[in-house]
């Protein structure tokens, strides 16, 4: 870190600390908080809870599926008594604009009435695969890899405009933290959790687009949480379900994995937060620990002081807030219990423990309060360093003041409701989503069949929603066009391929990896979803179809709706390969039933029929 950057950051931190003195005085908390019996503010402010479900009737935590859309007295007591510093909301909490505004207003009002600092109210609104808000409330956008496909022509323009659009939307709703952008460099074609959430396989391009996203979010009043430090791009294990390991050497880590983080930290508008990854990096820290099952494992970054304090704080000079990825993910929870996970990550240098314990019923509240006492005792007994806890508290309070988190309830609720309902969903954002989809549309290869000719097209799509979306778009762009579409979720019940082999062209859409029911958009019923074949069976069926289409001289186009790597498998058997890097659809109720549409499918249809060019360039290598 150069002297100019160091001086700037030192000045910012001093200004933040001076501003926090007033907050501390108001709360009658000394800067040292030398005795934990004087205040538990140091602990509560370092916890960020998820409020996804809560069952007052005591339904056990595995089966409780009652979403929290307003704060009950029991949950309010948890926030007040625990002096909780933040919450994260998920799709289950978010129904429509008015309800979201009222929920976030209620949360901040609870904190204010309790004499607490305003809450971090966080959301995962990355765009593309990861977006929690309903499309009718806020535009999802296509996602980071689509933005990466526009980089050769547009540079960081779409990264800036898309994240500005996201920030404007979620700020109106009362969110002040976005766990975005993802700046993992996707080097692994089999990466199950990142893939199209990454901008590119180029660390330099990821660094530029990531820094632009951070600045756009924060200039519009939303704290950015850069993730997942020190990098989740070269893994084939999802840290939601296991503990990945990155075997890069130190030189590769420095040149690839860390580069986007280093670049962002060096900017004047550096990220307010950086999120840790539940990933082992032996070249950075090969320290081992004994898991709850007695195994010996290398410490994941979330629990590593060498990585969070030695590398991120000391070597890279990061002065913002370090927040963990969710501590209930298997990458941590499978190996460390709730008590020790929080203590270990705090000792490693994390400021905020995200989702340290899932409260789902009254018994869960009791268990959380028992854990809370154990964390306080850990400080009293010297297991947690008191001076480090106090310094962390000061960082948190300084950030809350710098971003003016109390502004949301400075205006009456009625005014906030009026502002949000009048503006959302933003027409400018919807237009920008279409512009991004068109700019990202990438022709990977073409053997002379594009633009498509003819009037009757056969489609094979991942589900009924995508069938509907592409069919509608093709008919909109081409007069007299007819379509027949088969959902990949129904191939077992529709063995007759003749309708697909008698069309002017066959268009196949692939999602690798296979998506979940939540991503399906609701147009396939639950029974169909449960009965769908597995991905391997689908791939075999599709390959057989393409071979039959080739034998019958049917022009075939393969469309990668998620990761484009899979196009390499079909280069020899299909006539064209296109990448969209996204597959978002919105379902609307009309007099004729449910109708699906989406910017990706509008752009795809226009490109297939030759109405627009396909100017995108794949940001990852397709062999």
Tell me briefly what this model is.
The protein is of the alpha/beta class and 623 residues long.
Structural class: alpha/beta
Count of helical stretches:
20
Give the proportion of residues in helices: 25-40%
Spatial order of strands in the largest sheet = 11-8-7-6-3-2-1-12
Q: Kindly provide the radius of gyration, computed on alpha-carbon positions and rounded to a whole number of angstroms.
A: 25 Å
Mean pLDDT: 91
* Strand elements, count: 20
Topology (elements, then pairings):
Layout: H1 3-26, H2 41-44, E1 47-50, H3 73-82, E2 86-88, H4 97-113, E3 120-123, E4 125-127, E5 130-131, H5 144-154, H6 157-173, E6 177-178, H7 203-219, E7 223-229, H8 250-257, H9 259-265, E8 273-276, E9 288-290, E10 296-298, H10 305-315, E11 321-323, H11 330-333, H12 338-348, E12 353-354, H13 362-380, H14 386-402, H15 413-423, H16 427-440, E13 442-446, E14 456-461, H17 464-477, E15 482-487, E16 505-510, H18 526-531, H19 535-551, E17 555-560, E18 576-579, E19 586-590, E20 593-597, H20 599-608
Helix pairs in contact: 1-14, 3-13, 4-15, 5-16, 6-7, 6-16, 7-9, 12-13, 16-20, 17-20
Structure explained in plain terms:
By secondary structure, the protein is α/β, with parallel strands linked by helices. It has 20 helices and 20 strands. It has helices at residues 3-26, 41-44, 73-82, 97-113, 144-154, 157-173, 203-219, 250-257, 259-265, 305-315, 330-333, 338-348, 362-380, 386-402, 413-423, 427-440, 464-477, 526-531, 535-551, 599-608; strands spanning 47-50, 86-88, 120-123, 125-127, 130-131, 177-178, 223-229, 273-276, 288-290, 296-298, 321-323, 353-354, 442-446, 456-461, 482-487, 505-510, 555-560, 576-579, 586-590, 593-597. The strands form 5 sheets. It has an 8-stranded parallel beta sheet with strand order 11-8-7-6-3-2-1-12. The chain has a 6-stranded mixed beta sheet with strand order 13-18-17-16-14-15, sandwiched between helices. A two-stranded antiparallel ribbon has the order 4-5. Helix 17 links the parallel strand 14 (456-461) and strand 15 (482-487). Helix 6 (157-173) runs antiparallel to helix 16 (427-440), helix 7 packs parallel to helix 9 and helix 12 crosses helix 13 (362-380).
């Amino acid at each position: 870190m150069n002297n100019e950057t160091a001086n700037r950051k030192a000045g910012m931190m001093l200004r933040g600390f001076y501003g926090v003195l007033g907050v501390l005085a108001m709360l009658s908390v000394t800067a040292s908080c030398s005795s934990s019996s004087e205040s538990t503010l140091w602990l509560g402010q370092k916890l960020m809870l998820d409020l996804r479900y809560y069952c007052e009737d005591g339904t056990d935590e595995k089966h409780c599926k009652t979403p929290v859309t307003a704060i009950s007295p029991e949950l309010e007591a948890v926030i007040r008594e625990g002096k909780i510093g933040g919450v994260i909301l998920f799709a289950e909490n978010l129904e429509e604009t008015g309800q979201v505004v009222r929920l976030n207003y209620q949360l901040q009002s609870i904190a204010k009435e309790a004499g607490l600092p305003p809450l971090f109210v966080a959301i995962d609104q990355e765009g593309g695969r990861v977006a929690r808000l309903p499309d009718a409330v806020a535009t999802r956008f296509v996602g980071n890899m689509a933005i990466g496909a526009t980089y050769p022509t547009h540079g960081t323009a779409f990264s800036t405009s898309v994240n500005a659009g996201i920030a404007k939307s979620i700020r109106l709703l009362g969110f002040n933290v976005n766990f975005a952008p993802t700046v993992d460099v996707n080097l692994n074609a089999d990466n199950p959790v990142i893939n199209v959430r990454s901008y590119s396989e180029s660390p330099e391009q990821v660094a530029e687009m990531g820094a632009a996203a951070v600045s756009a979010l924060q200039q519009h009043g939303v704290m950015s949480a850069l993730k997942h430090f020190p990098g989740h791009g070269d893994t084939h294990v999802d840290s939601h379900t296991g503990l990945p390991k990155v075997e890069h050497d130190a030189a590769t880590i420095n040149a690839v994995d860390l580069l986007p983080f280093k670049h962002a930290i060096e900017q004047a508008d550096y990220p307010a937060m950086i999120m840790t990854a539940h990933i082992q990096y032996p070249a950075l820290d090969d320290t081992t620990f004994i898991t709850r099952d007695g195994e010996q494992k290398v410490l994941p970054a979330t629990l590593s002081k060498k990585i969070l304090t030695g590398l991120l704080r000391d070597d890279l000079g990061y002065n913002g807030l370090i927040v963990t990825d969710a501590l209930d993910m298997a990458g941590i929870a499978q190996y460390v219990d709730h008590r020790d996970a929080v203590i270990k990550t705090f000792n490693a240098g994390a400021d905020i423990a995200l989702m340290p314990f899932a409260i789902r019923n009254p018994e869960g509240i009791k268990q959380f309060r028992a854990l809370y006492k154990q964390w306080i005792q850990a400080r009293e007994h010297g297991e947690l360093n008191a001076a480090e806890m106090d310094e962390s508290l000061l960082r948190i309070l300084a950030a809350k003041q710098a971003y003016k988190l109390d502004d949301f309830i400075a205006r009456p609720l009625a005014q906030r409701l009026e502002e949000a309902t009048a503006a959302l969903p933003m027409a400018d954002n919807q237009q920008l989503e279409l512009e991004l989809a068109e700019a990202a549309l990438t022709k990977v290869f073409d053997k002379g069949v594009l633009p498509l000719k003819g009037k009757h097209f056969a489609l094979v799509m991942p589900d009924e929603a995508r069938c509907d979306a592409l069919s509608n778009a093709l008919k909109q762009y081409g007069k007299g066009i007819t379509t027949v579409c088969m959902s990949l979720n129904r191939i077992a019940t529709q063995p007759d391929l003749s309708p697909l082999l008698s069309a002017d062209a066959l268009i196949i859409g692939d999602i690798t990896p296979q998506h979940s029911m939540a991503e399906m958009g609701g147009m396939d019923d639950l029974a169909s979803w449960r009965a769908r074949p597995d991905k391997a069976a689908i791939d075999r069926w599709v390959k057989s179809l393409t071979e039959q289409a080739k034998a019958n001289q049917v022009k075939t186009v393969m469309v990668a709706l998620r990761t484009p790597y899979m196009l390499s498998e079909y280069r020899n058997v299909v006539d064209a390969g296109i990448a969209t890097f996204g597959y978002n659809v919105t379902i609307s109720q009309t007099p004729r039933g449910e109708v699906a549409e989406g910017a990706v499918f509008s752009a795809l249809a226009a490109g297939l029929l030759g109405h627009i060019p396909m100017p995108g360039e794949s940001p990852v290598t397709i062999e």
